[in-house]
Design the sequence.
């Protein structure tokens, strides 16, 4: 039972709430509830404001992006001088230069823009999802199969070649040489923007002058690796050119030669290909396999690569020169200056091709126009269906269907649209159908 005091309360127990303590307790509870409601309301308001700002920013960016797309390829029939199209915004503003401004670009509207988009980008599915000819854009359907009436526009071609040389400087930057890459100079990587100091050892590996300096070829074949080449019967037509360019050390084994030809003057090689197929020459076995692969090419072929696009593949690509020399190969390794990629990307951005990096295909077309009187392009087709509405593979030699279509670095459909414009202007010939035998 316990002892009780006179008040009747058990000894050791807490005193009961008085009226004043109860009021204080209720006030504190109400205050805390009010604070919770206030914080909840404030958080919702911040989220609404942030969402509205994001939507506004995205809408402005989309409108600016669409306006930038209304820029087309250079006018080669009538020269005009409109103001430059605005460049995409960047976080860091470049310092103002005191040098004289560059010449404005000569630009003309393309008559082959998809009419359904009112001059903006064509609207169609991702490349890897499109397998119906009827859904392809109009510019793809406008290409005839080996048009016998095609003629090169020599006046326009000369003007366009001169413009490319001024803007991209392919004759000087396409190949690293001892002259344009002296000892102790630095080159800046195209992607990560770090710098590489040119050593005496690397300088000695470079040619004194570009092997293409002061050269012009009457005609050139640029041979992509697209599945559109399968059963094309274009091999003899490709081999009839004076200079033949292929990509990514693509195979030219006998089973493909009827469609792709057998001759090669220059073949590109990128770091990803070295890593996937030859493990960046980590073992003698991988080097031996690489040497065996090169046996299918002509003994005087140039192996062209870009070791200064990213530092990830620099060492492996620079090894190609040493491997060829050690194995007494007459084939020669040549390298691209990274500024060439930057100038080419800037040029094509002004023509409406916006992407993180140009494909080697468009870069080679840009260079070939400077080297060749006539440029013929084969194996370029960024869809998985041909003109007969038949499914084709991404690569003529790969079993997989989609291959490299899913690539965040490139928009090969946009590049192909520009190539069709060049074709319709008579600056290049784009072959997307079957070829006739040349006896």
Sequence:
């Amino acid at each position: 039972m316990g002892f009780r005091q006179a008040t009747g309360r058990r000894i050791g127990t807490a005193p009961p709430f008085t009226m004043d303590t109860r009021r204080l307790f209720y006030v504190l509870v109400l205050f805390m509830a009010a604070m919770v409601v206030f914080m909840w309301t404030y958080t919702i308001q911040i989220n609404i404001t942030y969402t509205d700002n994001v939507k506004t920013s995205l809408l402005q960016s989309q409108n600016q992006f669409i306006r930038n797309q209304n820029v087309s390829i250079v006018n080669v029939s009538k020269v005009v001088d409109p103001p430059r199209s605005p460049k995409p915004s960047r976080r860091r503003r470049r310092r103002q230069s005191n040098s004289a401004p560059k010449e404005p670009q000569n630009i003309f509207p393309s008559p082959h823009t998809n009419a359904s988009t009112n001059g903006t980008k064509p609207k169609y599915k991702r490349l890897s999802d499109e397998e119906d000819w009827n859904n392809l854009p109009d510019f793809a359907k406008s290409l005839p199969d080996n048009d016998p009436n095609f003629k090169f526009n020599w006046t326009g071609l000369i003007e366009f070649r001169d413009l490319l040389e001024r803007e991209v400087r392919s004759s000087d930057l396409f190949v690293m040489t001892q002259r344009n890459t002296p000892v102790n100079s630095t080159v800046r990587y195209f992607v990560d923007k770090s710098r590489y100091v040119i050593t005496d050892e690397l300088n000695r590996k470079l040619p004194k002058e570009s092997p293409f300096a002061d050269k012009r070829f009457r005609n050139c074949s640029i041979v992509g690796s697209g599945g559109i080449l399968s059963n094309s019967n274009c091999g003899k037509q490709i081999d009839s050119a004076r200079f033949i360019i292929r990509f990514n050390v693509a195979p030219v084994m006998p089973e493909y030669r009827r469609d792709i030809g057998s001759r090669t003057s220059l073949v590109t090689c990128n770091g990803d290909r070295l890593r996937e197929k030859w493990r960046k020459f980590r073992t003698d076995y991988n080097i031996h396999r690489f040497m065996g692969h090169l046996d299918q090419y002509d003994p005087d072929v140039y192996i062209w690569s870009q070791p200064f696009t990213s530092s990830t593949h620099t060492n492996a690509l620079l090894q190609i020169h040493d491997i060829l020399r050690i194995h007494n190969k007459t084939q020669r390794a040549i390298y691209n200056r990274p500024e060439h990629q930057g100038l080419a990307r800037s040029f094509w951005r002004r023509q409406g091709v916006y992407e993180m990096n140009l494909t080697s295909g468009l870069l080679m077309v840009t260079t070939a126009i400077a080297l060749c009187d006539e440029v013929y392009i084969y194996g370029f087709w960024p869809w998985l269906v041909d003109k007969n509405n038949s499914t084709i593979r991404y690569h003529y030699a790969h079993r997989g269907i989609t291959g490299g279509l899913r690539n965040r670095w490139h928009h090969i459909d946009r590049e192909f649209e520009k190539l069709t414009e060049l074709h319709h202007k008579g600056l290049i010939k784009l072959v997307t159908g079957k070829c006739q035998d040349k006896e």
